[in-house]
Amino acid sequence: MKMNKVFYLNTCDTCRKILAQFDLTDWEVREIKKEPITKEELDEMYKKTKSYEALFSKKSTQIKARGLDVKSLKEKDFKELLLDHYTFLKRPVFLTNKEIFVGNDKKNIESLQKFFEMKT
């Protein structure tokens, strides 16, 4: 089974730009709107981040749509929301056997670039 997976959203320009930077030949590339993350995959991500909140996109349009107060959410709420709607996942997520890279902030992308450089 391929352990290197990347979860992204096709409608997200930032995701597409990030994915285009890397050779994903040996990766399972998953469009999360078409094929949402499973509970098992979320558990795997959680093992590496130790936090559902770290996987949660605070920019999701669903937050406002549902009238959520992010500050009052607990870990179990983040978990339920992540499984409930794909836009709650901070994207993209690069998941490997040992590491996880979540989101599109500069530091994360630099770590991802180093990861890919070590592979070549």
Can you give a write-up of this model?
The protein is of the alpha+beta class and 120 residues long. The protein has a single domain (4-118), classed as Glutaredoxin (3-Layer(aba) Sandwich). Helix content is 40%, strand content 12%. The protein is built from five helices and four strands, in the order βαβαααββα. It comes from Chryseobacterium potabilaquae. Belongs to the ArsC family.
Question: What are its keywords?
Answer:
four-stranded mixed beta sheet; 120 residues; 12% strand; globular; alpha+beta; Thioredoxin-like_sf; single chain; Arsenate_reductase-like; 4 strands; Regulatory protein Spx; Glutaredoxin
Largest β sheet strand count, sense and barrel closure:
4 strands, mixed
| Major β-sheet strand ordering | 2-1-3-4
The outline comes out as globular
Give the radius of gyration.
14 Å
Strand content: 5-15%
- Label the structural class: alpha+beta
Overall residue-averaged pLDDT value: 95
Task: Outline the low-pLDDT stretches.
Answer: none
How many angstroms separate the termini? 21 Å
Share of residues in helices = 40-55%
Instruction: Report the total helices.
Output: 5
For the record, the count of structural domains works out to 1
How does CATH name the architecture? 3-Layer(aba) Sandwich
Q: What sequence of helices (H) and strands (E) makes up the elements?
A: EHEHHHEEH
Look at the structure and name the CATH superfamily.
Answer: Glutaredoxin
Number of beta strands: 4
CATH topology: Glutaredoxin
